[in-house]
Amino acid sequence: MNKQQLIVLLGGILFGFGLSYSGMTKQEIVLSFLKLQDLGLIFVMGGAAAVTFFAVNVVPKYVKKPHYGAAFKPRRATFSRNVIIGAAIFGVGWGLSGQCPGSAVASLGTGNLPVLVGLAFMFIGAYFRGLLDKG
Amino acid sequence: MFPLGITPYLIGGIVVGLGVGLIFILTGLHATQSSIFTTTLSWFLKSRHFQKQSNLEERTWRLYLAIGIIIGALIYSLTLSPTGFWTTAVPLWRLALGGLLIGFGTRLSGGCTSGHGISGLASLSTTSLYAVMVFMGVGIVTANLLHLLGVAP
């Protein structure tokens, strides 16, 4: 493991701790957000995005480049029809199961093992996406 | 609206942001989640979609990110978790069918709740803002429809 990978591992530990602390590894809590019974999830995404906003937009003004990486770049996705169609399909899966990719991985650490099935099917879904990619 | 209060949600979200922020500040990498499906499959599938240069460059650190996430959730379960380990009551068919749609949809969209919802919004990407509005809207409609049809939990 090199230093960059060690930092990613440590950041991942914070990520997984925060996700489980906020209840996101409990699919029932995510579903109660989507049923508009408990809107707490907004604060998870908002709190995480706010801290990340500081890292992405403020820190690069004072630090020239990352110590263990090439450059600071914001995450800018190119708009296309696929972004919207894909988001809609993801939304159906999210509303059906209360899972999303990060919380599904974290669920393994909380002993929530049925989510292994969901994760396996996420890989199958990504495989089908590859089959359809003629680009 | 907030039967469990907002504190655990806000604190958990801030800790997630500290993880994403730490990784970005020290490495410049965006610690997003759904790419791991494609980058990990690049070890096994030889088509161009999976063999893109970026997948090959990212596939190792993305596995370290996933291992870290599992360790972090394990630490929570062994320390602060009031319920210890915990298992969902959502039936397997919903986890499986939902998972299939999540894997396909996030890879078609180029992001998920973390890629579009955290890193994309933090980067002030309008593309990500549209994606978040769509998956949240569709997720809310889907969950409510199931609820109306009497599907529980």
Summary of the model, kept short:
Chain A has 135 residues and is mainly alpha-helical.
Any overview of this molecule?
The complex is a heterodimer of chains A (135) and B (153). Chain A has 135 residues and is mainly α. Helices cover 69% and strands 0% of the residues of chain A. Chain A has 6 helices and no strands. Chain A has helices spanning 3-21, 27-34, 41-62, 81-97, 101-109, 115-132. Chain A is globular and about 45 Å long. The two termini of chain A are 34 Å apart. The model of chain A has no long low-confidence stretch (mean pLDDT 97). Chain B has 153 residues and is mainly α. Chain B has 6 helices and no strands. Chain B is globular, with a radius of gyration of 17 Å. The mean pLDDT of chain B is 97. Chains A and B meet through helix 1, helix 2, helix 3, helix 4 and helix 5 of A and helix 1, helix 2, helix 3, helix 4 and helix 5 of B.
Tell me the layout of helices and strands.
The complex is a heterodimer of chains A (135) and B (153).
Chain A: H1 3-21, H2 27-34, H3 41-62, H4 81-97, H5 101-109, H6 115-132
Chain B: H1 7-27, H2 35-41, H3 53-78, H4 92-109, H5 115-122, H6 126-148
Helix pairs in contact in B: 2-3, 5-6
Q: Which labels suit this protein?
A:
heterodimer, A: 135 residues, mainly alpha, 6 helices, 69% helix, B: 153 residues, globular
DSSP helix fraction of chain A: 55-70%
Count of helix runs of chain A: 6
Oligomer: heterodimer
User: Which outline of chain A best applies?
Assistant: globular
Residue share in β-strands of chain A: under 5%
The major pleated sheet of chain A works out as: none
Biggest beta sheet attributes of chain B: none
Element-by-element helix/strand order of chain A: HHHHHH
Structural class of chain A: mainly alpha
Count the E strands of chain A: 0
Bin the strand percentage of chain B: under 5%
Helix content of chain B: 55-70%
Q: Which chains have the largest interface?
A: A-B, 119 and 122 residues
Q: What ranges of chain A have pLDDT less than 50 throughout 5 or more consecutive residues?
A: none
